[in-house]
Design goal:
By secondary structure, chain A is an alpha+beta fold. In chain A, 16% of the residues lie in helices and 51% in strands. The model of chain A has no long low-confidence stretch (mean pLDDT 88). Chain B has 2 domains: 51 residues; 100 residues, Umud Fragment, subunit A, CATH 2.10.109.10. Classes of the chains: A alpha+beta, B alpha+beta. The interface between A and B is medium-sized, with 36 and 31 residues. Strand 4 of chain A pairs antiparallel with strand 4 of chain B, so a sheet runs across the interface. Chain A: One of its GO terms (biological process) is signal peptide processing.
């Protein structure tokens, strides 16, 4: 009854149970955090606005992004993935989401930032609908935990316009 | 001798009734594992509810050997979500983040472009030749939960099958010789 095998088995099972319980508790403790992030995105300049030979519109722009995401960090947070996307509707598509910039925030100290950048990924429409287009900028974040449940949310900023003519 | 001697003795002293009991309990373990797996498939709606991360393309978020829990719901796919997808002609599923979404007005079909956080460019090079977008049917599920390191067990077992056989053999012996 009290052989080596039994004791090793009991110890291993107990250790695993405690570890799983601690992981679950760490993940659940994230629920007590109610974050209040803030963000602001400004289109500083339209660098290029053209129709590609294939017929799709492409825009290149300069962005000013400032955000304070410090309240997203808890002790179970490994990193926060943050990205800015343009969202708009066209006659063909009910929703178009184009990531323009993204970044990885490794710690709370880096969570309040200001960045001036051109769009990291190409802003290409499916078709030629972008002239004079009104679109929303959304700042999304994706919280990656050390263990447990991942969470995500966004701030929507509206009232952005693309120019009426190519340039 | 000690433990090994006892083990051999207990195998020698097996009775037919005892053998049957052991076989039933072994069967119970196997079937309950199967039931749990199938139940997870039903709950999550994904054909593989748990995947192991095999590459470093999502570092530092997901490292090799981490485990992801998948969920496949009717909810539309949106940019920023981490999805697991299968490309035609490739057997191994890939875990990457969605960076572009185009959803059709009439049919609701989606065109999706993905990228690994740690990769420089998007995934068009990984897709089948000439494929520009992923559609709904390529996607197996989205990642909702995360558990570090546990997946190393499976990675080691697939890369060094001998360890798998030793482990299965040892566990089988333990079940057969247990006496309660």
């Amino acid at each position: 009854m009290h052989s080596f095998g039994y004791r090793a088995n009991a110890l291993l099972t107990f250790a695993m149970t405690i570890l799983a319980l601690m992981c679950a508790m760490a993940s659940l403790s994230d629920n007590f955090n109610s974050p209040t992030p803030s963000a602001h995105v400004k289109v500083v300049n339209i660098n290029r606005f053209q129709k590609q030979p294939k017929g799709n519109d492409e825009v290149s722009m300069q962005l000013n992004i400032s955000a304070d995401l410090q309240s997203l960090f808890t002790w179970n947070t490994k990193q926060v993935f943050v990205y800015v996307a343009a969202e708009y509707e066209t006659p063909k598509n009910s929703l178009n989401q184009i990531s323009l910039w993204d970044g990885i925030i490794p710690s709370k100290e880096h969570a309040k930032f200001w960045i001036h950048t051109s769009n990291k990924y190409r802003f290409i429409d499916q078709g030629s609908n972008l002239r004079g287009k009104e679109f929303n900028m959304t700042l999304h974040w994706h919280v990656m935990p050390k263990t447990g449940k991942m969470s995500a949310d966004k701030i929507v900023m509206s009232g952005y316009h693309l120019p009426d003519e190519y340039r | 001798m000690g433990w090994i001697g006892e083990t051999i003795d207990s195998i020698k002293s097996l009775q037919i009734r005892q053998v049957l009991t052991q076989a039933v309990s072994l069967g119970m373990i196997v079937t309950s594992a199967l039931i749990i797996w199938k139940a997870l498939m039903c709950i999550t709606g994904s054909e593989s509810p748990v995947v192991v991360v095999l590459s470093g393309s999502m570092e530092p978020g997901f490292k090799r050997g981490d485990i992801l829990f998948l969920h496949m719901s009717k909810d539309p796919i949106r940019a920023g979500e981490i999805v697991v997808f299968n490309v035609d002609g490739r057997e191994i599923p890939i875990v990457h983040r969605v960076i572009k979404v185009h959803e059709r007005q009439d049919t609701g079909e989606v065109d999706v472009l993905t990228k690994g956080d740690n990769n420089y460019g998007d995934d068009r090079l990984l897709y089948a030749h000439g494929q520009l977008w992923l559609q709904r049917h390529h996607i197996m599920g989205r990642a909702v939960g995360f558990l570090p390191y546990v997946g190393w067990v499976t990675i080691i077992m697939t890369e060094k099958p001998i360890i798998k056989y030793i482990l299965i053999g040892a566990l089988g012996l333990l079940v057969i010789t247990s006496k309660d």
